[in-house]
UniProtKB/TrEMBL annotation, chains A, B:
The chain holds residues 109 to 500 of 513 of the full protein. Keywords: Aminotransferase, CBS domain, Pyridoxal phosphate, Transferase. This is GDP-perosamine synthase. Its EC number is 2.6.1.102. It comes from Actibacterium pelagium. The keyword Transferase applies. Its cofactor is pyridoxal 5'-phosphate. One of its GO terms (molecular function) is pyridoxal phosphate binding. It catalyses: GDP-alpha-D-perosamine + 2-oxoglutarate = GDP-4-dehydro-alpha-D-rhamnose + L-glutamate. Belongs to the DegT/DnrJ/EryC1 family.
Length: 392, 392
């Protein structure tokens, strides 16, 4: 006799989210979609008494995720950053190894490399796609290079054919940072499942969320088994408190996983909401094509459009900054593109290859538009109108 | 019009837990106590849409915890292991620094030191208390020693007067691993609040739980501010995506914190349940005093009795192992004491000081009795009777 909520259903039979339709108001950068099953599963955890990383939702979420991305070896973790740390550690990347990282990414990508004790090397990105320039990566290879980390930024996938070819030639591990790219595909294969390991984030602004959370998938079941052991303090699964390796606590809770299971149930709707949003933005902004470069899926890929990122054609970073301020002042939470890593103090000594003009160009001229799947048509119109006004 | 549960109240006006009174059945090593406010606050998170590390329960939990332990600078994190990593990183402990760690502790203590790049040094524990032997620690000091990590094992507090004196003499940081010792005190001061930093765990078996979770408290507000920045990817709090340092993602979710707030409301009850359990065990086992050493609070301390640990008087580790098997076979989840770190492969090269006979003795002859605050009198009787039978 546990309490359960009956899901509200909309006219097409889809579960309804709690949020009521809002006036235009503040337009957030992102927000999660949570409904009755998120509540039901969380209630179930607390009422059953299983809220820690023990509990049946953890494996249910891992299995459901594995099925969705079509890769059997999925491990849930506390967030997308430790997912990268665990991937690197499980593959044995560490001190003395070089790892190639794109200069344009959220800092977690490079931080994870540094935390393993390995040496990151920065290479440029393609200015249009904002993803790893594989030719630049090739130049960066030395005898110490052990791995390459393509980052599928804002949902745009890296050219994985070139990446895997380069990796095969030089015997490098490929660790895909797919934190931002759940639902994206390269030639039908899910982001994160093409390399030796792939990682995902379920922070509150991601396609599906567990509040904080992450997942790592591995090509080889043996590596996944090692990761599982490392995730649980390096403990021997068959002898409690006997430690086989210097492990971590990177476990996801049953509560997080409960939300994750409910989110997986609605992932198709969330993805299609992103696609619709991107289509609406592209349509409404198409007349600005002499001022803006609008995002497009790279060849051979399906783009999740996790975030919709536009770029100014005029080469003037001041204008981008002013535009962001203009829109923020009008209650629209637009965001700058990440800063090139090489510009920031903690990474100033990191070896870099080439002139890194792609990452600078993408960063200086890019603007991330609000990309919540819950944006209403009036909100989308408001964002586009304000952007247009700001450009005048 | 959000859904809220009305707390069930027992005859003394205390909130009632979901679990119904059970027959003796399986006796777990530990289990959380969860009731209606745990549910209400979690419901509130999901219904408000704030489930990530953003959300008001995170600061409410930090503030409530700070008040409880009487130390203003408390930061919530994903678990007790990363709490230690964050404490070390915020204090600037890293490569080239030696950190003194007791040989008897859960491996997370030493793993955190290794992950920062610092060098752990193992010293013995006092066999009766199972806590750091401060005289041994003194012998371990070299010019490279930077910090000392007393671990308050099973709720028993280390002799903090000696620790702080030694640290002051040699200008060492004191990082208290109080993962197991919330509610314990030394001369009235809470475990974790005496050194430069103190860390706590809220795993499902801890005094209060958030599923997985942790807290770190700092003496100095400046160090806490640095930790806050490091916890959030090293990002500049005043400029988004601009990173000041190589940070982590160690954030706690609003969902975890919601449970934490509800747990803090019942912490006095949980602590008194631990005390009562310890008193009952001690009473029922008092006649075995020629075979068992029963736990006692060290001088000047209040012992939380997070776990009730007995030790065989006979110096025969085989008997302890057999006794554990005997009890497990009878559905009682007794646990061995942790293994001395120096015995396990990942730590075999770690420098150690002295003969480490205290840690070996504690580990080989100790047995951790089930310590759930929900154990019923019949269960307690069953545990004691079975222990007595096994000793025969
Ligand atoms: C390439 C790459 N690699 C690795 C990682 C690491 O993953 P992880 O963060 O460790 O899981 C990441 C993750 N990067 C994220 C990080 O998760 C980071 O924390 C986040 O930074 P942010 O942009 O500063 O995040 P924010 O402004 O705090 O939140 C973004 C929006 O989402 C909304 N939001 C977040 N949580 C919630 C919530 O619980 N409820 C509601 N309603 N809104 C929420 C906020 O209000 C904002 O509008 O966004 C970055 C892009 C990555 O992008
Ligand atoms: C000195 C010291 N320093 C640092 C740390 C690191 O903290 P953290 O684990 O990173 O938060 C720790 C934490 N050590 C813990 C770790 O948290 C570790 O994971 C845990 O190991 P374990 O003994 O193997 O844990 P277990 O057998 O999985 O769970 C213990 C009991 O609690 C019950 N339990 C756990 N979660 C739940 C739950 O959600 N519901 C119920 N009903 N029972 C639960 C289990 O059923 C068991 O009976 O216990 C160790 C003593 C520490 O002791």
């Amino acid at each position: 006799n546990r309490i359960m909520l009956v899901p509200l259903i909309d006219q097409e039979g889809r579960p309804v989210d709690f949020a009521t339709q809002k006036a235009v108001g503040f337009v957030p950068a992102a927000e999660p979609v949570l409904g009755h099953n998120e509540i039901n599963y969380v209630l179930d955890c607390v009422q059953s008494g299983w809220i820690s990383s023990q509990g049946s939702y953890v494996s249910a979420f891992e299995n459901g995720f594995a099925k969705y991305v079509d890769c059997p070896n999925a491990l849930s973790v506390s967030n997308g950053t430790v997912a990268l740390q665990l991937a690197l550690a499980a593959l044995g990347v560490g001190p003395g190894d070089e790892v190639i990282v794109p200069d344009l990414t959220f800092a977690a990508s490079i931080n994870a490399v540094i935390h393993t004790g390995a040496t990151p090397v920065l290479v440029d990105v393609l200015q249009d796609e904002m993803t790893l320039d594989v030719a630049a990566a090739e130049e960066a290879i030395t005898p110490a290079t052990r791995a390459i980390m393509p980052v599928h930024l804002y949902g745009q996938m890296c050219e994985m054919g070139q990446v895997t070819e380069l990796a095969a030639q030089h015997e490098l591990y490929v660790i895909e940072d797919a934190a931002e790219a759940l639902g994206s595909r390269w030639r039908g294969q899910h982001a994160g499942t093409i390399g030796d390991a792939g990682t995902f984030s379920f922070f509150g602004n991601k396609l599906i969320t567990t509040g904080e959370g992450g997942m790592v998938v591995f090509k080889e079941p043996e590596v996944a088994a090692r990761a599982r052991m490392l995730r649980d303090h390096g403990m021997d699964p068959s002898q409690r408190y006997w430690h086989l390796d210097v492990g971590f606590n990177f476990r996801m809770t049953n509560l997080q996983a409960a939300i994750g299971v409910a989110q997986l149930e609605r992932i198709d709707d969330l993805l299609s909401a992103k696609h619709q949003l991107a289509a609406k933005y592209s349509e409404r902004l198409s007349d600005l094509s002499n001022q803006l470069i609008l995002p497009e899926a790279a060849p051979d890929t399906d783009h999740s459009f996790w975030c919709y990122v536009v770029r100014l054609k005029v080469q003037d970073s001041e204008i981008a900054l002013k535009l962001i301020e203009f829109m923020k002042a009008r209650d629209i939470d637009v965001r700058p593109v990440f800063f090139p890593l090489h510009r920031m103090p903690p990474y100033s000594d990191v070896r870099r290859v080439g002139r890194l003009t792609g990452s600078s160009g993408s960063s200086d001229l890019g603007i991330v538009l609000p990309s919540s799947p819950k944006l209403t048509d009036p909100q989308i119109a408001h964002v586009c109108d304000t952007l247009r006004a700001g450009l005048d």
